[in-house]
């Protein structure tokens, strides 16, 4: 295998938010393995991460100044940091709704505003959405924030395209991280039942796509939204119907 194939991100400087654990930590590791110089950031200031609260404009400005000084330019940004809040429609407060929006939408907005000016043509931004952004998932603050992130991504794709900067969104399904570890067991069970591939995802299901989207191999791909969810959002509820009908009228000829 040649050098470019083994190190598709060689020479690139990439920022990952929310990189202390979960998908962000795995993304930082995979991007480094692909040859990138990774600036891992997190609100916790965990070891190996630069402290960055994505809701703080001052902290984004400080990061931009530091990147300009240390690297001159930036080639990739992964807006991965996110929080969930599982209050339902009738019980969510305006404060909690706003807090989730601040991290999941305003954070990526500030990141794009402060870091895109450091990107030369070929720069690539990956926003981490959710299967909630493609459905009416019950945690309303989270779902609404991830739908808003889709809108931000589409506008950023339009606005940054003339500068040669690509903006794509990935939509993870149920991925095993600390975020989902705190969910009720029923949520996990139903998620698996509604996933055609019949399992939850791992961080290793996410990272290859992030590496790919940051690489020059997909230099004409922007504005895309790619589910990484084992088919969870593909069937629009029809899986339950299919499963029920299979039970009611078992098929003689198996498809596989
Ligand atoms: P996680 O909770 O394990 O990790 C999130 C990270 O973001 C943590 O390290 C946390 O400290 C950091 N963070 C939180 N608030 C921050 C802030 N204000 N500034 C900077 N960092 C902050 O979650 P995860 O499962 O790894 O999720 C990563 C992304 O994937 C999130 O955007 C999440 O919404 C999305 N997502 C997760 C799943 C899933 O099933 N795990 C599914 C769909 C989408």
Range of strand content: 5-15%
| Weakly predicted, low-confidence segments | none
Which class do the helix and strand fractions yield? alpha/beta
Distance between the termini: 34 Å
Biggest sheet, in brief?
A: 7 strands, parallel
The count of strands amounts to 7
Structural notes for this entry:
This protein is an alpha/beta fold and about 260 residues long. Helices cover about 45% and strands about 10% of the residues. A 7-stranded parallel β-sheet has the order 3-2-1-4-5-6-7, sandwiched between helices. Helix 2 links the parallel strand 1 (about 15) and strand 2 (about 35-40). Helix 3 packs parallel to helix 4 (about 95-115) and helix 4 (about 95-115) packs parallel to helix 5 (about 140-160). The chain is globular, with a radius of gyration of 19 Å. Nicotinamide-adenine-dinucleotide (NAD) binds near residues 17, 54, 103 and 180.
How would you sum up this structure in a few lines?
The protein has 256 residues and is α/β, with parallel strands linked by helices.
Topology:
Layout: H1 3-6, E1 13-16, H2 22-33, E2 37-42, E3 50-51, H3 57-70, E4 76-79, H4 94-115, E5 124-128, H5 140-160, E6 166-172, H6 178-181, H7 185-193, H8 203-214, E7 225-228, H9 238-248
Parallel strand pairs: 1-2, 1-4, 2-3, 4-5, 5-6, 6-7
Helix pairs in contact: 2-8, 3-4, 4-5
The chain binds nicotinamide-adenine-dinucleotide (NAD).
